[in-house]
Amino acid sequence: MLPVHGYCDLRFGGVLDALRAQFTRDDEVGAAAAAVVEGALVVDIWTGAADAARLRPWTRNTLVQVFEISRLLTNLCVLKLAD
Fold first, then answer.
1. Which residues touch 49 (CB under 8 Å, ≥6 apart)?
2. What pTM value is reported for the model?
3. Is the pLDDT score of 68 beyond 90?
4. Which residues, in sequence order, are bridge partners of residue 8?
5. Mean pLDDT value of segment 26-45
6. Nearest CA to 32 among 66, 79, 55?
7. Number of other CB atoms surrounding residue 48 within 10 Å
8. Quick one: CA torsion of 69, 70, 75, 80, rounded to 10 degrees?
9. Which residues contact 6 (CB under 8 A, 6 or more apart)?
10. With contact defined as beta carbons under 8 Å apart, do 1 and 55 qualify?
11. Who wins on pLDDT, 61 or 69?
């Protein structure tokens, strides 16, 4: 099992467990999760590698491209404007 780095409030242990569960298989490379509740950072965790060759470790500042969520958010904005 890969080590998970960062901070996770005990109330959100399920997020930590879910991230760990994703990395029980060899097909995952790296990932991160963060959550803010009422202005407080309650989850900020990461694990794995930042590249497919697994040469660079994932860090708090690893940049990623977000495709699927950006499409969803764009559609929601367009629908809101149309409404």
1. 29, 30, 55, 56, 57, 58
2. 0.74
3. no
4. 43
5. 93
6. 66
7. 20
8. 100
9. 32, 43, 44, 45, 46, 60
10. no
11. 61
Take residue 24 and report the two structure tokens written for it: 């029980």
Helix (H, G, I), strand (E, B) or coil at 69: helix
Residue 48 C-beta-side C-alpha neighbours within 13 Å: 22
**Residue found under tokens 């040469």:** 55
pLDDT band at 17, cuts 50/70/90? very high
65 phi and psi angles, rounded to 5 deg: -90, 135
Q: How far apart (Å, rounded) are the C-alpha atoms in residues 32 and 41?
A: 14
CA distances from 49 to 21, 33, 53, 65 (A): 16, 14, 8, 15
